[in-house]
Design goal:
Layout: H1 2-24, H2 37-44, H3 48-60, E1 64-67, E2 71-74, H4 92-116, H5 119-130, H6 138-154, H7 159-167, H8 169-181, H9 190-206, H10 210-229
Antiparallel strand pairs: 1-2
Helix pairs in contact: 1-3, 2-3, 3-8, 4-6, 4-9, 4-10, 5-6, 5-9, 6-7, 6-8, 8-10, 9-10
């Protein structure tokens, strides 16, 4: 599984560099409609999941945008990351480090949100959770999932939580994509799995139970990591 992930990362990096070059050199100016996933996969001789990784990275950096039914188009003429100072994920070690950092930041954010969230912010979190009841495809799944986590960060009342998650946008989206690709079929659909793991977080925040919110977020992130890697990671920090 680890070699499979690393191969996917390397291939998606090559596609990303190729597409970025077309945009930065002006071959694809602003407003250009990007070829479909199937067309790009044929052009680069790779699978569609590899193409999706490269497109998600471009979207997270604000270089391209997408609208349902109209595909993706170029938004910016230069590959300048937006609100990001963390290096992209390049290998399995990077994935492990990203989850280790998220376990530290997001578990605390969930606990703080349970203590401080205003009624309206709790409703926003519930709304982000309920959004998974609609039509969820490969293009909007990552954004919907990230919206849920960002809503929790905002509910802390501490802008640094929100800023940190925003800076981790591409790393988080990348992990969410792999979670979907490598999930166990016995768990049910990707949406079912995420909704099932998000629900205890929503319930704990709504009930103003910080310890329960902390544990629910921790269980969710660890489960996501296990689905991606296929093995548990030793040495997780566990608070007394």
């Amino acid at each position: 599984m680890s070699l499979q992930i690393e191969e996917r990362v390397k291939l998606s990096d090559k596609v990303y560099e190729s597409l970025s070059s077309k945009i930065s050199t002006g071959e694809w100016p602003e407003g250009t409609r990007i070829p479909t996933e199937a067309e790009l996969a044929l052009m680069h001789s790779v699978s569609r999941p590899v193409i999706r990784e490269a497109l998600f990275r471009l979207r997270s950096e604000g270089i391209i945008g997408s609208k349902r039914g109209s595909g993706s188009s170029v938004l910016a003429s230069a590959a300048t990351p937006v609100n990001s100072s963390y290096k992209p994920i390049e290998n399995v070690a990077d994935l492990i480090h990203a989850f280790e950092f998220r376990l530290s930041v997001e578990c605390d954010a969930a606990a703080v949100a349970a203590m401080r969230a205003e009624h309206e912010q709790i409703n926003i979190i519930k709304g982000a959770h309920d959004a998974f009841n609609g039509i969820v495809n490969d293009e909007n799944f990552g954004d919907l999932d990230l919206n849920f986590h960002v809503a929790i960060a905002k509910a802390t009342g501490n802008q640094m939580f929100e800023t940190t998650l925003t800076m981790l946008h591409s790393q988080i989206i990348f992990g969410m994509r792999l979670t979907g690709e490598f999930r166990s079929a016995s768990e049910g659909s990707r949406v079912d799995v995420v909704r099932r793991e998000h629900q205890p977080i929503v319930d704990a925040i709504g009930a103003r139970e910080p310890k329960a919110a902390f544990q629910a977020m921790r269980q969710h992130l660890r489960a996501s990591r296990l689905r991606i890697l296929g093995f548990e990671v030793a040495g997780d920090w566990q608070r007394p």
